[in-house]
Amino acid sequence: MPDQREDIDLKDLKLTDKYSKFGLNSNPFPVTGLATEDPGFAPFDEKITKELSAFVQDTYTRRFFGGFVIIGEYGFGKTYILKHLERRINESLSLRGEDRAYAIYVMNPKSSPEDFVTSIIERFGMHQFMVMAWRLVTERLAKEFKSKGESFAREILSKEVQLNFFEPLQFSKAFILKPDLLSSPMKFLDEAYRNKANLASIQKHAEDTFLPIFRAPEIARGLATLGQRGEANYLWSEWLNYKQFKKSLKKDVSVPEFFQSLMTVFRRNGFRQVYVLIDEFEDIADLGRRERKEYLSRLRDLIEYNLEFFSMVLCVKRQAWDIIAEAHPAFVERFPRGVELKDIGVEQAKKMIAEYLDGVADQAARISQDPIYPFTNEAVEELVDKSAGVPRVILELCFVLLEYAAEENKIIDKAMVDQIESFRESILFEKKLQVNI
Fold first, then answer.
1. Which residues 6+ apart lie within 8 Å of 422 measured at CB?
2. What is the pLDDT of residues 287-318, one digit of tens each?
3. Domain tally for the chain?
4. Quick one: which of 195, 251, 199 has its CA closest to 224?
5. Distance of CA 55 to CAs 207, 337, 351, Å?
6. How far apart are CA 359 and CA 24, in angstroms?
7. 11 occurs within a structural domain
8. pLDDT tens profile 203-233
């Protein structure tokens, strides 16, 4: 019997235009109230912007450790602020040549300092980090070639090669040691493999480059491994995972020492400051009393061992921060600057709603100059009251209200906000069905 099942048919798929009556292209509010990415606009409290700007300015200028803590309850926008800070630092400072800075967002502090350090590199990107590490090797090769000339070129590729049948024989320095290849480490290695270069010689130069940085022959050798191309990539990742390689070492390398090695690679690639942004630091408070104290002690050791070229921003709930302060006062002392998030008022809520709407607005089709349209002022006042001023709750309610208003062809007024519980569950349930299908 023939299969009667129908395939997914998307040929008639169209974008909904139900929001066009309000001059909008879509519903910009997150269904859960939690934005997965930085929506692109600044925090709604100008004090937060001012304090974070001053912190970055100070640490970037001094190139010394700075600790900043953002305290706030669930739904007050801690994650949004961290992701916004990450974007602003990386957009503004990551391309400044020898004066670069970079921000790395980490979801939580993980179960141990070892896992935490590994998660920083994973978030930055293992491949991206290895490109930076091998750039130090190709810089070394460029200096050797400039100093020794053709004799060094013959060490890297000791005979002439023919790239393909139609090309004449070429000597290595014509392509393997060209400046444009040496400035692109992975491309250089691809050419080295392709042209049967002396991989053992390249690997020896890599080991000599990595040993002063990582201070353990096993790590230097692991990060310098070439061999099969795919296998090399795998081994490099293994040697950047602290827990994986620690048992292979003859001499112990502590977490603070290993982290300093990672920061050295950043520094030698022109980064004057790396900002580690840690979300959900309150997880530390859930550890047992002894585990919590040990974790904080080890994390403070990591900070004390790396007081240059590195700073940290934490997000944490108030109760958890108090528990952490009681468990390890010396750790908390490393975070003397910070802000505490409070509930937002009507004017801040209006600004937040206007920013979200502006991101999806068709200005030519907007029938009102009011930036919060189709919300009324009275509706926003009621929203703030109903949500107790919690930004995440306001955003979730805004999603529901705009969906309902678009279906019913109504503006969002105080009466609609008062009635939201009568249609909120049905709209959210419908959205869940769409996601789960």
1. none
2. 999 999 999 999 999 999 999 999 999 999 99
3. 3
4. 199
5. 38, 8, 25
6. 9
7. no
8. 999 999 999 999 999 999 999 999 776 788 8
